[in-house]
Amino acid sequence: MSSPCDPRNAPAGDVSAALMMIDSRLKAVYDGRTQADPEQQALVDQFIASLGPREVDDVLDGTCTLIFLFMKWLRMAYEDHDRDVIEYVVPNLVATMRMMPKSVRPEAIPTMAGLVVAAGTGLSPNLWRKQYGDWTKDEMTPLEATAFLLAEHINRLTDDHDFATRMITQALSGPDED
What top-level branch of life does the organism fall under (predicted)? Predict the structure, then answer.
């Protein structure tokens, strides 16, 4: 029986834009900054301000697609070592988000944990979330933080600061290279 949260039923969204935002945050952290480069941040802010409602939804869907792809990679990596991805990723994610009270309100943490569990079990994060209503403005930063933390987790596992971004970029460019 097919689930209404099957990833085949989910829009991919604007994965490139979502990845650009996550990559910008990763680069800032790896460069030892607490904030993104002011010039880079200005470009990201300008891009976000230029989006209409449909484009915002596309970036939101793209962020959920990133979460799904990151969790898919993590699930395969942990299964290769006979470990459960949920057991190793979710507690770390929740603990980290609890240390980010300015960016992630406590009430958003269960939703983000649920989103990651959904993705970790092969469900579409955006379709899983949709069954509980529309996204709220207060969930936007925690959603970005979730994608960022998963990408950073992958980069730590691979000991490569660009691995998560490169993996998605290669997946996006793969069909064009055939």
Answer: Bacteria
